């Protein structure tokens, strides 16, 4: 998968964990070495840490459950009416279909994506996909973008996924460049 540069930032959660850890270490040091603090303080610190961690994991589980609900709603909407999806939602819909078929999927950035909307990997196949949700037939430009993305992302297979079909010229170019022309239903067979 293409590497993205990530800045190293300490998240709020990491800072809180670090503060709690050093506070715990300080109190433990005071209890063990100076006998000035009581064991009750240490017990309170342990209870506070365990309460905070349990609340964090509950919040994380609820967030995951919410994102799964949004994913399932998008899949239902896409199955019922692809025209109702925005172009970005159509890309997500296609990526969810591939994920359900055990592909490792990455959505590229929305602009400057070099012609690929989805990069998917499975069984040594690196699939580069250009998604088009147009009201009319998809033309030559989408095939050119997919072929260029195949070279740029060093893929082994390229495809264009659209809703309404392809022009005659697009079909000819796809045949000569070995770019697959699919519908969302074709993703179900991958």
Under the CATH scheme, which architecture of the largest domain would be assigned?
3-Layer(aba) Sandwich
Helix content: 55-70%
Average predicted confidence as pLDDT: 79
Which structural category fits the helices and strands?
A: alpha/beta
In angstroms, what separates the terminal alpha carbons? 19 Å
Query: Within the largest sheet, what's the order of strands?
Result: 1-2-3-4-5
**Helix count from the secondary structure assignment:** 6
Radius of gyration over C-alpha positions, nearest whole angstrom: 25 Å
CATH class of the largest domain: Alpha Beta
Please report the total strand number as a whole number: 5
- Regions with little confidence, pLDDT below 50 for 5+ residues: 1-9
Task: Using the alpha-carbon principal axes, give the shape.
Answer: elongated
The CATH topology name of the largest domain reads Trna Endonuclease, Chain: A, domain 1
Written as H for each helix and E for each strand, in order along the chain, the element string is HHHEEEHEHEH
Strand residue content: 5-15%
**Biggest sheet, in brief?**
5 strands, mixed
Provide a descriptive summary of the structure in words.
With 190 residues, the chain is α/β, with parallel strands linked by helices. It has two domains: 12-76; 86-187, 3-Layer(aba) Sandwich (Trna Endonuclease, Chain: A, domain 1). The protein is 56% helix and 14% strand. The protein has helices spanning 12-34, 39-80, 87-100, 140-152, 168-177, 184-187; strands at residues 104-107, 118-122, 125-132, 157-162, 179-182. Helix 1 runs antiparallel to helix 2 (39-80) and helix 4 packs parallel to helix 5. The two termini are 19 Å apart.
């Amino acid at each position: 998968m293409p590497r993205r540069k990530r800045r190293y930032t300490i998240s709020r959660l990491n800072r809180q964990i670090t503060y709690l850890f050093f506070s715990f270490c300080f109190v433990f040091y005071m209890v063990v070495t100076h006998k000035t603090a009581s064991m009750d303080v240490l017990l309170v610190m342990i209870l506070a840490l365990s309460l905070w961690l349990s609340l964090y994991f509950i919040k994380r589980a609820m967030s995951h459950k919410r994102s799964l609900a949004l994913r399932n709603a998008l899949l239902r909407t896409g199955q019922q009416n692809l025209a109702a999806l925005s172009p970005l939602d159509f890309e997500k819909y296609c990526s969810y279909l591939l994920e359900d078929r055990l592909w490792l999927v990455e959505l590229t950035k929305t602009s400057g994506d070099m012609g690929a909307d989805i990069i998917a990997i499975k069984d040594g196949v690196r699939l580069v996909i250009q998604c088009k949700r147009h009201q009319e037939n998809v033309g030559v430009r989408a095939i050119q973008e997919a072929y260029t993305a195949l070279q740029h992302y060093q893929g082994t297979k390229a495809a264009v996924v659209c809703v309404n079909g392809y022009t005659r010229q697009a079909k000819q170019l796809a045949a000569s460049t070995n770019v697959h022309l699919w519908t969302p239903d074709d993703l179900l067979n991958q």
